[in-house]
C-alpha cells in the first residue's frame, strides 16, 4: 500500500511516465530494466498520426503492431463499441450466444477460401495460433492418431507469446530464455531469399526449401506430423517474402501427407496486402485453418480467431468418439463488443479502404525502394502496405553482424525526433502504416526515414 501511495504522490507531478516506471511491466523487457521502464507516452491518435506527451505529431509507421488498419480515431468504431456495450456487453458463451459473432462468422466465411466456414474467436493472435494447435491435437486424438502431433515451423517465424505459439517462433529473441516445447516442434529454414546461399538463384533456393520440407516429412514421418504453421509473408521476421510458388508447393506436400496447413494471417489478413485474406487471393493456397487477429478490429478491441475447414469438423462429427470434448474455451470468446467492432471495421474496409490500400501500395513500395541508394541499406522489400528496410555492414557480404547492433534503434530515435515512429528489429526497420495513408503522407514518411538513416550513417562513421 505504501508504495502505491508514494507513486501516486509522484504521479501528481509527472503522471504516466513515472507511474509506468513504478508499476508497469512493458512487453519484451530486458532483465536489467524490467519493471522500471517508461516508453514514449502517446496521448491521442488521428488517422495515420499519434500525438506524444509533448504534443508532437508522429506518423505511426508500424500502425501500432501492424494493426491500426483503418487508422486512429475512427468515430464509427468508437460509436459501435459504445452502442453494442449499451445493448449487450457480454454473454456467457457456453449456454448463450450473440448475434454479432454469428454475423461476423458468416462474413468471414464468405472471404475465407474453400470450405473454411466456421470461426472460433479468441482474444488475439497468440491465442488464435494456440487454438489452432490445440485443435490439431484434439483432431488427431479423436481420430485415433495420437502420435500425429509434431508441428513444422520455420526460421524467421513469429506466431505469438503464449507457450506453444512462442515455441514455434524462429527468431532467437522471441524464444531464448524460455523453455520452449522443443519436443513438439520441428524447425525448417527461413525462406528468406535475401539471405539465401551466395550464388544460388531464387528458383534454386525455392527448390532447396521444398526439398528440405519433403525430406523433413520423410525423416520425421508423416504419421508423426500434425500440422505446418506459416505466415504467408513472415512479418516480424523482417517482411520475408518466400520465392514465388514456394507456399503452393508446401501446401501440396502437406495435402499429399495428410498434414494440416495452418496459414497464420494475423498480420496479412484484413487489408494489409489489399485483401481480407491473402492465402488464396495472392498465394493460391487453400489452408485447413487460417488464424487472424489485429486488423480484424483495427486494434480497437482485442479479438482474434481461427477459421476452420468444415471438412475437419465433419471428420470429428463422424468420429468414433462423439463424446470427446474439445476442452478449450476463453472467457471472451465470441465477445459481442469485439465482434460488433469487427463487423463495422469490415464495412469500412469494404467501403473503400481495401481499394485504397491496393491502389496506394505500389507507390509505397516504389518510394521506399528509393532508399536503396543509401550505402547502409542492403535491401528494401515488401508487398501491399508492409515493408522492411534491412541494413547491412557491407552490401557484398550482406553481413549485418559487424554493424553497431543498435542500428535499428538509432534509426528509430532519429526518425522519432523528425516525426516518424518506426519499428526497429535489430538491423531492420519495419513499416506497415495504417491503410488509409495518402501519397503525400508516404512521401513524408520516406523523407523522414531517409534522413533518419542518413543521420545513423553519420553516427556510425
Ligand atoms: N501471428 C503473427 C504472424 C503475428 O505477427 C503475431 C503478433 O505480432 C501473432 C501471431 C501474435 O498475436 P498477438 O500479439 O495478438 O497475440
Automatic annotation (TrEMBL):
<dbReference type="InterPro" id="IPR015424">
    <property type="entry name" value="PyrdxlP-dep_Trfase"/>
</dbReference>
<keyword id="KW-0663">Pyridoxal phosphate</keyword>
<dbReference type="Pfam" id="PF00202">
    <property type="entry name" value="Aminotran_3"/>
</dbReference>
<dbReference type="InterPro" id="IPR015421">
    <property type="entry name" value="PyrdxlP-dep_Trfase_major"/>
</dbReference>
<dbReference type="InterPro" id="IPR015422">
    <property type="entry name" value="PyrdxlP-dep_Trfase_small"/>
</dbReference>
<protein>
    <submittedName>
        <fullName>Aminotransferase</fullName>
    </submittedName>
</protein>
<keyword id="KW-0808">Transferase</keyword>
<dbReference type="InterPro" id="IPR005814">
    <property type="entry name" value="Aminotrans_3"/>
</dbReference>
<keyword id="KW-0032">Aminotransferase</keyword>
<dbReference type="GO" id="GO:0008483">
    <property type="term" value="F:transaminase activity"/>
</dbReference>
<dbReference type="InterPro" id="IPR049704">
    <property type="entry name" value="Aminotrans_3_PPA_site"/>
</dbReference>
<comment type="similarity">
    <text>Belongs to the class-III pyridoxal-phosphate-dependent aminotransferase family.</text>
</comment>
